[in-house]
Amino acid sequence: MDEGKEITWIPSYGPEMRGGTANCTVVISDEEIGSPFVHHPSAVIAMNRPSLDKYEALVKPGGVLIINTSMTDRKAVRKDIKVIEIAANEEAEKLGDQRMANMILLGALLANLPVLPQESIKKALKGHLPERHQKLLSKNFDALQEGARYIP
Amino acid sequence: MADYDVETETLVYERPDSLTDLSTHFCPGCTHGVAHRLIAEVLDEMNLREKTIGVASVGCSVFSYNYFDFDFIQAPHGRAPAMATGIKRVLPDRTVFTYQGDGDMASIGMGEIVHAAARGENITVFFLNNTNYGMTGGQMAPTTLPGQKTSSSPNGRDVESQGYPIRVAEMLAKLDGASYVVRRSLDDPKNIRMAKKAIRTAFEVQQRGLGFSMIELLSICPTNWGMTPVSSIQWLQEKMIPYYPLGDYKVHPAIAEIKF
Amino acid sequence: MARELMKGNEAVAEAAIRAGVTAYFGYPITPQTELLEYMARRMPELGRAFVQAESELGAINMVYGAACSGQRVMSSSSSPGVSLMMEGVSYIAGTELPAVLVDVMRGGPGLGNIAPSQGDYNQMVHGGGHGEYHSIVLAPATVQESINLTVDAFDLAEKYRSLVVVLSDGSIGQMMEPCELPPFKPLKTVFPDWATTGAEGRSKRVLTSINLDAAAQEVTNFRLMRRWQEIEANEVRYKTYFMEDAKFAVTGFGSCGRLALSAVRAARAEGIPVGLIRPITVSPFPTKLYEELSHKLDALLVVEENNGQMLEDVLVATRFQIPVDFYGRMGGMVPFPDEVLDEIRRVARGALDTSGHPRDRWLKRMAQKNL
Hints:
The structure holds three protein chains of three kinds. Chain A is an alpha/beta fold. Helices cover 32% and strands 17% of the residues of chain A. In chain A, strands 3-4-5 form a three-stranded parallel sheet. A two-stranded antiparallel sheet of chain A has the order 1-2. Chain B has one domain (25-146, 160-256): Thiamin diphosphate (ThDP)-binding fold, Pyr/PP domains (Rossmann fold). Chain B is built from eleven helices and nine strands. In chain B, helix 1 (32-45) packs across helix 8 (189-207) and helix 4 packs across helix 5 (110-118). The chains are: A alpha/beta, B alpha/beta, C alpha/beta. Chains in contact: A-C, B-C.
């Protein structure tokens, strides 16, 4: 948004609030966004096994699949997409907070699907996080950095 | 002319300012008129006429807005407490009351009245209980007594298949949100005076922001009961009062101290 | 003001606050609940009225009561809750009161589900409550449009003493998009000459929807209908895309209108001269626009997240002068752009079957897909 792009974020709301295949869809575009729903996304971050099972098949050919191996017990099947595996929970713990797992995965996504430079994310976090959370910034930046190392 | 001195004539009875000059559509002997007059007298005495908004309901009370001479709104069947909530919340310094019958309030509007009381809405509710749906021709109401014949309980209310009457005052008194809940009767001068006193208390409660007040008024319906007004009054005294005892069911300690 | 990322439901709530809403009455129901929750926090903070009612029936009648004061008041709900509100909607219409209602539609009928749907079109546009009345119905397609239309809804409600419905759905309500909020409007201090605020120094006012004299009721209904003609003449809004050289057009409202945009772009990339018409007021409906287009276009494709409810209005407007086809998903299913693209390709190939009703042809095609 700060980079002048159009974006939409839409969650799967309702009973699936935790675990399972609770998911959201993000669209980033240079023009007015039509559908916020996407049949075949350019990239999928699968944070657990049920999500991997459900969404691996939907990734656009040539797209990116990022798997959190801390919560999955199988490899990707697809050969026509770029697969990145990260034990995000363990890596996050090494950084001192398991809740950083999502930022590691985001770092990996940005490194493999160049829609935005990492710097934009950092600037946006700084600009939009409320004052009381600003102290968490450097840890989040570390996590992004960590994720960015995962390039096949 | 010799002994008659115009100067000493004093007016002892007149129409309250809060009532219009219209004749009502109520049947001969109906006690709605008494209830209207009592409310109007109290609003006059408290100088509230210009600050009051009444909420009419559906039933014989539907036209009460014609007879009261202040702002009035008309609710869908049973919803008067919700409408009163709405307008009181945006005009908290105005006096807001609903005027409802037993079919309207104790049947279709039971949800609205219970929750208005539970929220402690700072409104006053007048509940006219005449044990039947008057306007539609005397059908069984939630307040119809066991065995009482109505047009929809022609063999008398059979509690096995048609359930038991609801004692609304007793029920609402159980709610923490209700501040002042009493039952009075419009059958004789003493009870009518007591009813007026309760109406005054209820409006004082609202004026002081002390929360929800409800006055149940036992009333007669000679036409649908198929009785003369006099025998209707007798029936009220013999049948209704034993089932619906008069009294104060909830008087918040802060109200007990009110003097006027 | 800088753009912020906001969820549709919360953006609508904040927009209403900035438009000067003095009272909100609601009841929790997914996918609308964030609106209620936002109001629960913000309204008391600003010293304004908020009540979580005992039911949608209670909520709409609280709106009804509060609207009698001439203040800006609103409620919000989702399909099953809105069904329960129909009593109050009709009474508000009959009493000629301004009020705003947001319907964040979900799949039905019955309890249905909480997925996005457009199944309430008929209920909101063609009545729902009893008697003769029309509500103004605005259909936003984005979070920003939800904000803008919510602000406009209050103005329109006051201008025409009418209920104005913001007809959103689960996807727009739940979606986050960048948006800009309007500036704060001061709360109203002058109230209309019909408001019941206490008869201080004036004769009494009565607000009611009862007219036992049928002739008097008819006078009211004629007034309502003539006012509606005025609304039809002045308030129609729509947005068009790629229509300059279009031979075909897709049309849909709200979220369906925007997802059709993705399909239309893809079709344009294939060289198909197709455009998009997205009605913003579905009531009043842009009848004239469709009538004019029926002289220019080769075919029209109506896309909805329902069984073809707006389709009927399009058919009336185009008077069967051009082939009209329909594609819809129901019950909370949302069509993906590639499904709509397939339909555009089919329509653009020409030689359309125009026998019978477009809905029957659609049902036949869907049966071939085992639906």
